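Reviewers of the previous submission asked for a worked example of the structure-prediction workflow described in the proposal, so we include one complete record here. The input consisted solely of the amino acid sequence. No template or homolog information was supplied to the procedure at any stage.
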Amino acid sequence: MDIHQIKTFLAVAREGSITRASDRLYLSQPAVSAHIKAMEETLGLALFERTSRGM
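From that input alone, the workflow returned the following structure tokens.
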């Protein structure tokens, strides 16, 4: 886990969506998703509840 993943996690938590977090961080949506997925795999748990309206 690195600082970029932690910043991505915080942005998704604040924004409530990968799309809005990617806009805020100037990253692509797949990059944001990859950061979250890597953190989840490292920690062995789901960090967010995914819904049709966001995270």
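The chain has a mean pLDDT of 94. We consider this example representative of the routine output the project will generate in years two and three.
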